[in-house]
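Renewal narrative, Specific Aim 1. Our central claim is that a sequence can be written position by position from structural information alone. The example that follows is taken directly from our test logs and has not been curated for this report. It begins with the structure tokens describing the chain, in the order in which they were read.
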């Protein structure tokens, strides 16, 4: 049996404490629901971390033991300490996978890794979202089918200010007419990054079986494989000048 993937599910965890509507959907926080789904998917050990823990729960020790980090933030991006942002960014460059969920498009971590604003159009009107699979052979689309729907979601529309994705897995259509690149992959350094759009806090999106499947697939895709882990050990040496051939 292969070694389990070590996942840290990070959540801002503010809306759930302050807003009764959100609390009703996620009484223990959306991180609890995401972590439960990943545990049920199998092959992973899962821990959670939240903004108000010391160092946001992302100490160097925790990150060193994390193969894949998932990130949900919205109302308090500015409260995330730059020191922790830098730490996460460096770990991604070394090979840690990162799954950025929904409003995480404006997180400091995502913007630092993308180098763009992450801006997009949005509207909160409880519209239907149809998520089309545009790369059916991609590991993140495994078991998802041609498309799936969420009855009510916040709308995100193009133009989404990110670098052209290395791979586009999902494209969303909304009832109001907009489309959005809702499942996109990038590589930064040795790390793989997957952005997945759905997950507004007032809807039970993270309880949806398809959404849970995509996040689990994303974690498996983003996990560093053996060669990456090997390369990681050699990053330091690679920064030294190589001796001349004689
Ligand atoms: Zn939202």
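The sequence written for that structure reads:
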């Amino acid at each position: 049996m292969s070694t389990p993937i070590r996942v840290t599910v990070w959540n801002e965890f503010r809306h759930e404490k302050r807003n009764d509507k959100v609390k009703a959907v996620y009484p223990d926080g959306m991180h609890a629901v995401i972590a439960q789904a990943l545990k049920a998917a199998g092959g992973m050990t899962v821990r959670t971390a939240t903004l108000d823990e010391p160092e946001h729960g992302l100490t160097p020790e925790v990150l060193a033991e994390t193969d894949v980090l998932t990130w949900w933030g919205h109302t308090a991006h500015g409260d995330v300490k730059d020191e922790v942002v830098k730490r996460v960014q460096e770990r991604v460059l070394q090979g840690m996978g990162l799954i950025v969920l929904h409003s995480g498009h404006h997180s400091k971590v995502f913007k630092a890794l993308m180098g763009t604003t992450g801006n997009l159009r949005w509207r909160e009107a409880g519209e239907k979202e149809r998520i089309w699979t545009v790369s059916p052979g991609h590991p993140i689309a495994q078991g998802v089918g041609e498309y799936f729907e969420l009855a009510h979601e916040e709308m995100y529309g193009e133009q989404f200010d990110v670098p052209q994705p290395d791979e586009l897995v999902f494209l969303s259509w909304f009832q109001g007419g907009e489309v959005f690149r809702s499942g996109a992959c990038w590589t930064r350094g040795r790390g793989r990054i997957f952005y997945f759009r759905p997950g507004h806090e007032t809807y039970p999106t993270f309880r949806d079986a398809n959404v849970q499947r995509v996040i689990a697939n994303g974690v498996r895709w983003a996990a560093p494989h053996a060669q990456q882990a090997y390369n990681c050990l050699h990053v330091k040496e690679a920064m030294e000048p190589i001796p001349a051939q004689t």
